[in-house]
From TrEMBL:
Leader sequence segment: 1-35
Assigned keywords, A-Z: Signal
Name of the featured protein: Lipoprotein
Length: 344
């Protein structure tokens, strides 16, 4: 009886050990799977394994949708002559309808005015309207904005001109308060569809087109198109360049890289140069302050929505930052806009 009991005990012990070893093996296997799926460099388990990079047109389409979502339309008749319109945010647009021309000829009748206003960095990103100002040598540097504005006037689909300009009255409450260092800038689109800003040095009034009075900026615009109230960002720290590598299959045609400076809410920089050989976006002008705390933002398109990733970074000299597809997220325009606006 004693011998049989010992055999039973040994058999039971083996079963327990075997069960424990199996549980341990299962636990180790599960841990390995979880560790692998959380690796941002491994796209196979990130839900992106079948994701094809978007075409350039698909990326352009979501930007166009964002811009359309910011567009306001006003209709008026030239018989009213002196036109004063108020935007959704309270910006006043004043123009003389008698000054409108079509290929140099006066126009009359019903007119449509298309207007866009952008005050927050989230909207700057989705519409691809960053605040990069041209330096005298042609390089670009960050400018702090008091608002970006677009005005176009049409009649029956034909774009009109004006021979006497127009006026914007911008409440300083929309721009973070009054700043006498602000000046007027005009926007210029490059071949890649990126917007850069040129400062208006002077005009017929001798005031550079902008003056501050009370709680309003008054902008005197000489024509239609993009206009900005801005000043250059100033930081005394040594500067460097920054390079960013997007996920494989993404480039400057189907994605973009932006830079949000912490503590500078109404501004958004863009890495607007691209090396096809190295697959690197760059701010090659050497204008990024070393030690700057910021957020580097990768954006692209995925099935009609925004694919993005945001990295908090403290800038070091000649840094290269890499994004992986497995660490990106897909959200709506509204969600991404709110997220960018909430950055420090």
């Amino acid at each position: 009886m004693k011998t049989i009991k010992n055999i039973h005990i040994r058999t039971h012990t083996k079963r327990i050990l075997s069960k424990n070893l199996f549980s341990l093996f299962a636990l180790l296997l599960m841990t390995s799977i979880l560790a692998t799926s959380c690796d941002p460099t491994d796209d196979s388990d990130s839900g992106s394994q079948n994701e094809e990079p978007p075409t350039a047109q698909e990326f352009k389409n979501i930007r166009d949708i964002a811009l359309n979502n910011h567009t306001q339309l006003f209709n008026f008749n030239t018989e009213d002559v002196y036109i004063s319109l108020i935007s959704e945010n309270g910006v006043q647009i004043n123009l003389n309808a008698n000054c409108l021309t079509d290929n140099g000829n006066p126009v009359s009748g019903d007119i449509t005015l298309e207007y866009i206003e952008i005050f927050e960095k989230g909207s700057m990103l989705t519409t691809n309207k960053p605040t990069m100002g041209k330096l005298p040598n042609g390089d670009k540097a960050l400018i702090i904005t008091g608002g970006e504005f677009f005005i176009e006037v049409t009649q029956n689909g034909t774009i009109l001109d004006t021979n006497c300009g127009l006026q914007l009255v911008i409440p300083t409450s929309l721009t973070g308060g009054s700043d006498p260092d602000m000046s007027l800038w005009t926007g210029e689109m490059d071949a890649d569809g990126n917007l850069a800003w040129d400062e208006v040095e002077d005009n017929t009034n001798g005031d550079g087109g902008l003056f501050l009075e009370g709680e309003n900026y008054y902008g005197i615009l000489e024509g239609f198109g993009w206009t900005n109230v801005d000043k250059f960002y100033n930081d005394p720290r040594p500067k460097t360049t920054l390079q960013v590598q997007p996920p494989a299959g993404y480039n400057n045609q189907n994605s973009a890289i932006y830079l949000s400076y912490d503590g500078e809410l109404p501004a958004l920089a863009q890495l607007d140069t691209y090396d096809e050989t190295l697959n690197l976006f760059s701010e090659h002008y050497g204008q990024i302050p070393i030690g700057l705390e910021c957020h580097v933002i990768f954006v692209s398109e995925s099935d009609g929505e925004w694919r993005y990733s945001i990295k908090p970074v403290t800038i070091v000299a000649n840094e290269i930052i890499t994004f992986y597809l497995g660490e990106t997220t897909v959200r709506t325009e509204a969600s991404l806009t709110a997220l960018i606006n909430d950055l420090p």
